[in-house]
Amino acid sequence: MNTRFVSVNPPIAQHPGVARAEEAASSLREVALSLAQVLSAGLAQGWQAMCRRAAEAHGAAPAQIWPALRRPSEAREDARFWAMAERDPRVMHELQVAISRRSEA
């Protein structure tokens, strides 16, 4: 009588299907990362162009219209920073120096 033993549970790390799946997942990850980089760069350029067009349509420089396009969360952060500057004279001094430098430029 000829008896053969078959391993029903082979080690997963050595299975050729697992190796192919890992290679495919790695390639897919690289492609997805590249696509995300391209899309984010395109969106950033599109956003800048849209801001410039909006500023030109209103007859203003992009730096003048930017505050109107900022997110509400940024406005809240600015309000918190201003409140902190009102309580701490050192922060207020730094803020006034920064504002004066910006107005000189």
How many structural domains?
A: 2
H and E order: HHHH
Query: What would you call the shape?
Result: elongated
- Please outline the major beta sheet: none
Low-confidence stretches at least 5 residues in length (pLDDT < 50)? none
Assign a percent range to the helix content: over 70%
Strand % is under 5%
Q: What's the count of strands?
A: 0
Number of helices: 4
Distance between the termini: 96 Å
Structural class assignment:
mainly alpha
- If you average the pLDDT, what whole number results? 77
Notable traits:
105 residues; 2 domains; mainly alpha; 4 helices
Q: Quick recap of the structure?
A:
The chain is mostly helical. The protein contains four helices and no strands. Helix content is 78%, strand content 0%.
Which helices and strands appear, and what pairs or packs with what?
Blueprint: H1 16-57, H2 62-69, H3 72-87, H4 89-104
Helix pairs in contact: 1-2, 3-4
Account of the protein in words:
The protein has helices at 16-57, 62-69, 72-87, 89-104. With 105 residues, the chain is mainly alpha-helical. The protein is elongated. The mean pLDDT is 77.
